[in-house]
């Protein structure tokens, strides 16, 4: 019998293939559609693609504990020092037709084992608009999954150097292979675009409603158990009478995750299951920095987690979140945003060995200085208390302080 996730996937694919026959009755939409079609006909589609990207170079200037690490957030932390290329991204995107757009983003600074500078695919998807105003569109391919506002926010836009363990542990690299339907009125899509272009650090256009299915095994990995994950998100950016923007949202996903052989220690007990419940729900509040900003997210759920005492991996509850305060001020031709962030997480990380058990308590303070449109500098100082345990390292608690600087170059 077809599962709900399969039925949803089939419905979304049928919608993507459909061509609405009803004519637009709104004259403005009709005029816009004709203008868009005429413009698209002027040039071949490949001449309408845009090219952009950014490079992030980091340096850990000070650390009090060489054993403190966070492989998921910044692989340079436990290294012996030196300059580290955190991201080197190149984005190719544009409209193929007035109903079809494409997006491709590789990263040239990924890591495989001890080798850095590996080329790895991050995004490759198409958006199919089901109406001329693009109120409803279906996204097919590898893309960000609409769970967690900070997960969807670009790393080239985000103020803190890292995403929080609590939210980011849901989805490695924030992405998966998916079919997702997004709905948002044209005025809301314009508002979401404004929140990015104006320097208010918006998360981008992921609609007011997003519903879809995805494999659930992570970036560049196929399905393992023929049971797709389902995801849903609702979020709305309000504009208050005084011009202040506030966004609130709720999101969740559910499925079953397979702990693949390469992530299982040889010492795992034979009773350890192969797949596990994987579900979460999260709430989001964002007060955009005009000039004071406040951002908070919290999630709860259930997933696999290492149990060194029984030498197994079990389904356990998880919870955690963060609070980020910012203040945005003009500095000559640029902008300075000082910030402070506190976050905690208690739970497993399914994409790490034996779904490592984590207990994280962290405080970070710093500032981002947008020197010019093409150059941003960030300095951060953090206080960390991290415990991460797997079967081979059952009692690993590390305290430490760390200072880092980053230069980002946009092109």
Descriptive account of the structure:
There is one protein chain. The protein contains five helices and 17 strands. Helices cover 12% and strands 52% of the residues. Mean pLDDT is 89; it is low at 7-34. The protein is globular and about 65 Å long. It has helices spanning 4-17, 27-42, 149-152, 165-168, 186-197; strands at 50-63, 83-95, 100-112, 115-129, 136-144, 175-183, 209-214, 229-239, 245-258, 275-287, 292-307, 312-327, 329-331, 334-348, 357-372, 375-389, 397-410. It has a single domain (4-18, 51-410), classed as Porin (Beta Barrel), CATH 2.40.160.10. The protein has 411 residues and is mainly beta. Strand 3 (100-112) and strand 4 (115-129) form a beta hairpin.
């Amino acid at each position: 019998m077809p599962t709900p996730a399969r039925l949803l996937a089939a419905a979304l694919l049928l919608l993507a293939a459909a061509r609405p026959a009803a004519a637009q009755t709104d004259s403005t939409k009709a005029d816009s559609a004709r203008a868009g079609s005429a413009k698209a006909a002027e040039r071949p589609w490949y001449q309408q693609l845009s090219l952009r990207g950014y490079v992030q170079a980091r340096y850990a200037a000070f650390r009090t504990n060489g054993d403190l690490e966070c492989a998921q957030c910044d692989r340079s932390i436990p290294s012996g020092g030196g300059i580290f290329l955190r991201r080197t991204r190149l984005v190719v995107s544009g409209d193929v037709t007035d109903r079809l757009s494409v997006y491709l983003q590789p990263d040239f600074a990924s890591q495989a084992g001890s080798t850095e500078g590996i080329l790895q695919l991050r995004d490759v998807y198409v958006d199919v608009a089901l109406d001329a105003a693009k109120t409803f569109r279906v996204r097919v391919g590898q893309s960000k999954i609409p769970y967690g506002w900070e997960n969807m926010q670009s790393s080239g836009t985000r103020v803190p150097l890292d995403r929080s363990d609590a939210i980011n542990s849901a989805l490695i690299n924030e992405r998966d292979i998916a079919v997702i339907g997004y709905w948002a009125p044209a005025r809301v899509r314009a508002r979401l675009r404004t929140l990015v272009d104006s320097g208010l650090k918006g998360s981008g256009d992921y609609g007011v409603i997003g519903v879809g299915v995805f494999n659930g095994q992570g970036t560049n990995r196929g399905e393992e158990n023929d049971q797709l994950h389902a995801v849903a998100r609702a979020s709305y950016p309000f504009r208050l009478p005084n011009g202040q923007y506030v966004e609130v949202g709720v999101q969740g996903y559910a499925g079953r995750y397979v702990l693949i052989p390469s992530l299982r220690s040889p010492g795992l007990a034979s009773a350890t299951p192969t797949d596990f419940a994987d579900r979460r729900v999260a709430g989001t509040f964002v007060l955009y920095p005009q000039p004071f900003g406040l951002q908070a997210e919290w999630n709860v759920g259930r997933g696999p987690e290492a149990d060194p005492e029984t030498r197994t991996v079990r389904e356990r509850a998880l919870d955690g979140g963060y609070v980020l305060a910012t203040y945005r001020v003009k500095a000559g031709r640029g902008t300075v945003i000082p910030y402070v962030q506190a976050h905690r997480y208690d739970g497993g990380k399914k994409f790490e060995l034996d779904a490592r058990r984590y207990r994280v308590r962290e405080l970070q303070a710093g500032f981002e200085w947008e020197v010019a449109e093409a150059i941003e500098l960030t300095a951060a100082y953090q206080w960390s208390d991290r415990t991460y345990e797997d079967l081979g390292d059952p009692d690993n608690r590390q305290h430490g302080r760390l200072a880092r600087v980053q230069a980002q170059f946009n092109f």
